[in-house]
Write a structure and sequence with these properties.
The protein has 221 residues and is an alpha+beta fold. It has one domain: Aminopeptidase (3-Layer(aba) Sandwich), CATH 3.40.630.30. It is built from four helices and eleven strands. This is GNAT family N-acetyltransferase.
């Protein structure tokens, strides 16, 4: 299917994905169009995560994120999402800008909560976002969760997005905890996305993972 767009217009065709701009020189496309797996082919075992610098994550978001093209200010680590050793996207793990949150009768303090932000895939690759998030979660909790005392993971999905990512989040132990209320942030530049509600998803980090840093098998795709 061909889609037309005016110069500079972002066209969302998947989970926080925009079509590759002509002449894109971002870290994903500077050497040409990377290979992807066709729909129906098993690929999850070939997905892996690498830590990447802030400027690399920022270049990916600027070129390909459909509604938030900047790097979060309060970031902890940036993950490159790779398939067959090719960089195809990025996720930033950060402390959210909240003091505390109550979930299932338990109160979590702000430094016990970490958000998976800017989940961004720079190619048209169905189901890669869900497989990559699972790998990224496993790596983040194993390498940072115990040391930082992380007890709860958080992410947001645009409320008008209806796709496999929502089902995948539920399958990996995430639970929808309602919608956010639209509204601009007083201390940050206005963004159109803040005028739209988003689903809030939460995932409790298993206690055994916090103690032992064991592999999170139930999160592995």
């Amino acid at each position: 299917m061909t889609q037309t767009r005016s110069p500079g217009q972002r066209v969302s065709t998947g989970f926080q994905y925009t079509r590759t701009p002509e002449g894109c020189s971002c870290p994903i496309h500077r050497d040409g169009q990377p290979f992807t797996a066709p729909l129906g082919l098993r690929f999850a075992e070939r997905v892996h995560i690498e830590s990447i610098p802030r400027h690399v994550a920022g270049a990916i978001y600027e070129a390909h994120h459909s509604y938030m093209d900047s790097v979060p200010r309060t970031n902890l680590v940036h993950h490159g999402l790779c398939y067959q050793d090719q960089l195809l996207g990025a996720i930033t793990w950060r402390y959210p800008l909240i003091r505390s949150l109550e979930y299932d009768g338990t109160r979590y303090e702000g430094d016990e909560i970490v958000e998976a932000a800017r989940i961004c895939i720079g190619v048209d690759f169905p189901n890669l976002a869900s497989a990559a998030l699972a790998r990224s979660m496993e790596r983040f909790v194993r390498r940072h969760g115990r040391r930082r005392g992380v007890r709860l993971l958080l992410t947001f999905v645009r409320a008008d997005f209806d796709g496999s990512m929502i089902k995948a989040l539920r399958d990996k132990g995430w639970h929808c905890a309602g919608k956010t209320e639209p509204g601009q942030a007083g201390n940050r530049p206005d963004k159109q996305i803040r005028e739209r509600p988003k689903w809030r998803f939460l995932c409790e980090v298993p206690a055994e993972s916090r103690r032992e840093q064991t592999s999170l098998g139930r999160w592995t795709p």
